[in-house]
Amino acid sequence: MHEAAVVDGLIRILVDRAAGAGIARIVSVKVVIGRLRGLDPRQIRGCFEILAEGTVAEGARLDVVAVETAARCRTCGRDYAVPRFRFVCPACGGSDADVTHGRELHVESFEGIGAAADIGTHDDARGHAAP
């Protein structure tokens, strides 16, 4: 299950970014994951709940945004959705394409509550993970 490794990296990024922003507790996280990554959003959520225990992200709401696969035909230049991983251009029938969406994997944003002296105020911080 590579979801656990991905979530472990996600937690590390969140802990680092929260410390840098003076955030004592993360309350929500938005993660963008392309379908080509082959990650199961339910497993991501389950791993997040377990691996966030004891960190500033414990109890945070995790929103997973799934990005459908899309491509651009190298033959005719048309952009198209890629159903069921079939890279066939609907305009010319070509199968030579560049992936334009579907490989994403990053923290879009997270929201947290500041240090103990600032409880009740919300700071918005953003972090990004490399694909």
Characterise the protein shown here.
This protein is of the alpha+beta class and 131 residues long. The protein contains 2 helices and 7 strands, in the order αβαββββββ. The radius of gyration is 18 Å and the shape is elongated.
Topology:
Blueprint: H1 3-21, E1 23-34, H2 41-51, E2 61-67, E3 70-73, E4 79-81, E5 97-101, E6 105-114, E7 122-125
Helix pairs in contact: 1-2
Keywords, separated by commas or semicolons:
single chain; alpha+beta; three-stranded antiparallel β-sheet; 23% helix; disordered C terminus; metal-binding; HypA/HybF; Hydrogenase maturation factor HypA; Hydgase_Ni_incorp_HypA/HybF_CS
Q: Span from first to last CA?
A: 18 Å
CATH fold annotation of the domain at 3-68 and 102-123:
hypothetical protein PF0899 fold
Instruction: Name the CATH architecture of the domain at 3-68 and 102-123.
Output: 2-Layer Sandwich
* Number of beta strands: 7
* Average pLDDT level: 88
Give me the number of helical elements: 2
The main sheet comes to:
4 strands, mixed
Shape: elongated
Low-pLDDT residue intervals, each spanning 5 or more residues: 116-131
User: H/E element string?
Assistant: HEHEEEEEE
Task: Report the sheet-strand fraction.
Answer: 25-35%
Which radius of gyration do the C-alpha atoms yield?
18 Å
Helix content: 10-25%
CATH class of the domain at 3-68 and 102-123: Alpha Beta
Strand arrangement, major sheet: 2-1-6-7
Structural class per helix/strand content?
A: alpha+beta
Function: Involved in the maturation of [NiFe] hydrogenases. Required for nickel insertion into the metal center of the hydrogenase.
Pfam family, one: HypA
InterPro entries: Hydgase_Ni_incorp_HypA/HybF_CS, HypA/HybF
Organism: Rhodoplanes tepidamans (Rhodoplanes cryptolactis)
